[in-house]
Task: structure prediction
Amino acid sequence: MNLEEVARLAGVSRSTVSRVLNRDPRVSDVARERVQTVVREHHYHPNAAARSLASRRTRILGLLIPQAVGSVFSDSFFPTLIQGVAEGCTTADHDLSLLLDTSGDHRAVDRLYHRVIRGRHVDGVVIASNLVDDPIVARLQDDRFPSVLIGRDPQGRSSFVDADNRQAARDAVAHLIGHGRRRIATIAGPANMIAAIDRFGGYVTALQEAGRLPDPALTIHADFTRPGGYRAMMALLPHRPDAVFAASDAMATGALQALGEAGLRVPDDVALIGFDGLDGDMLAQGSLSTMVQPVADLGRQAVRTLLRLVEMPDQAPIQVLFPATMVLRGSCGCTDVCPLDDRRADEASIGRERTVEAIAS
Amino acid sequence: MNLEEVARLAGVSRSTVSRVLNRDPRVSDVARERVQTVVREHHYHPNAAARSLASRRTRILGLLIPQAVGSVFSDSFFPTLIQGVAEGCTTADHDLSLLLDTSGDHRAVDRLYHRVIRGRHVDGVVIASNLVDDPIVARLQDDRFPSVLIGRDPQGRSSFVDADNRQAARDAVAHLIGHGRRRIATIAGPANMIAAIDRFGGYVTALQEAGRLPDPALTIHADFTRPGGYRAMMALLPHRPDAVFAASDAMATGALQALGEAGLRVPDDVALIGFDGLDGDMLAQGSLSTMVQPVADLGRQAVRTLLRLVEMPDQAPIQVLFPATMVLRGSCGCTDVCPLDDRRADEASIGRERTVEAIAS
DNA sequence: TTGTAAGCGTTATCAT
DNA sequence: ATGATAACGCTTACAA
Result:
């Protein structure tokens, strides 16, 4: 069953059927009705390849995840992001092509890139690279291929969707200050990841706004993992912090363990606040206060943004930041615990994002 | 840049270029060389849509995950599976289209199904449904659309790739028996999931082979989650088991917690063995013995199997089982702990799978 | 509002 | 071994 046959059965021309299929208003009601009936009765669906060839649009969006080694999937960031992107695609009636670099091989990504981009397998790509300066981003810019980053672009050249990491970190630390904490440490993330940089920036800002100078001894960098957080906390202990802002929940959990082993009470001796809100289990069962970022929303919004770029190739970069949601449990020192679960937090953030004009580095 | 232009620059016809691109041997070495040079110099890649339209093959495989609600991604099963499938596709020079049902809505899956299958968006689908009787499977059979299940099909009608859950469970329980345990309980999974059924079957078989009758009081069903395992273990405690086979690591972890709270020592008072080997963290840090299933291999093999079905539409169902790998840590009662990590276990299973002739229900 | 006809960039079937 | 040429199933000016 194809367009031609539908046209024949409906007693109209192929053009008319095509118009009905593409919601072209220039069709009479009777004709539309007749076509739709035939389509429904024969379960007709247009052939994707023919459509793509003629329209020069594939209606497929790519989700590119470079360096998708096993460890990348250790928490639910990527799974949740994938879900968000998939939802966005479904909503927009597009397909989602998953472009994973499982090999970690530089040349493999190159081949994938050329095959998919130059072969027009997709109309655009969402890029989930956490590296601050991924060469693939520059290449897409040069090729003028529609793309949206998940995660802020420090250069500000490309379109992106991100959580407002800096603001969220600032809020978190301000909250600890509000609890009367004096020696607030931070377990920061890797210095080559923009999210880590922004979260550290927010930490510094909050201290400065309170008229304090960040003590270098109270900053330590780790790798976003639980063991990393454990070691970082061990290293911080001699400097006697009375609060810790961990740039990820995984690190916060490691810190929690280290504090426990050192015989320190949370929050009595040391208050603790994390970042991410990914692991529902950890949030639901534990008492960790954290900044929840709306990861699924990031994915959905990235698709919407990408489609605008696809439709308007000369569109200037679109940059969107989503606020994080503060979820207060016991670990930060709050006695009045907020029962908000991360799912509600996630939904609540829709419509609260803001488009960024210019990003101060 | 298109085929025609390449042909012009190489001084040959379009047909010859097409043959070179498709590795047709009927091309002279000089012609091939000339074409390849032009292709390389101009970074030419064939247009996917045109290719699909003419060849009636999209070179895209779908990965269908019904009911991909948040909880599905709570452990790394699906992420790992996705990675395996993605690797398989890359190896075979195919694209991967992710078909997630994020809504859970029945009608949404229907629309997706028709759009993708009838619109020929993909050449075939890998289906990751854990339900024992998913209607979508029957529909694909009826439409004679190439598909491979991840997880055994009890009816034996469709092609599938799975871990040999029954054999693995049998080995695990036999191992506990070998440790001299007398009252071996099991925390089984949901009765509508084939993996849970098979693992329970293996438990029963092992006991029977040892000349024992399974005590109904020592079997309890849970939902594969950690809290579920915790509650199940609590319910088992009054019956004083001296060993527990948990059908998932998440449930085993919950059981571990319950045992700890009850003041029982593992493995001294109660030996414990889990199933999955997914969470690298849990395996590396904890002392949980478990049956590791090669999830990424399942995905890779599913792709290979699916491609055979795509190429030979009248192929009889292909059914493959992979052995699980026993990883012994302290919890089962072994003193001589095996330091095998799950990555090595995963690799080791390649080539050890077997094709199933007939599956005994 | 509707129809006609010319592509879209390949593959595949023939000859040669 | 190579080259014409006709599909493949749709979109999209352009004409009516």
About this structure: Chain B has 14 helices and 13 strands. Residues 12-16, 19, 26-28, 31, 50, 52-56 of chain B lie near DNA strand D (CB under 10 Å from a C1'). The radius of gyration of chain B is 25 Å. Residues 339-348, 357-361 of chain B have pLDDT under 50 and may be disordered.
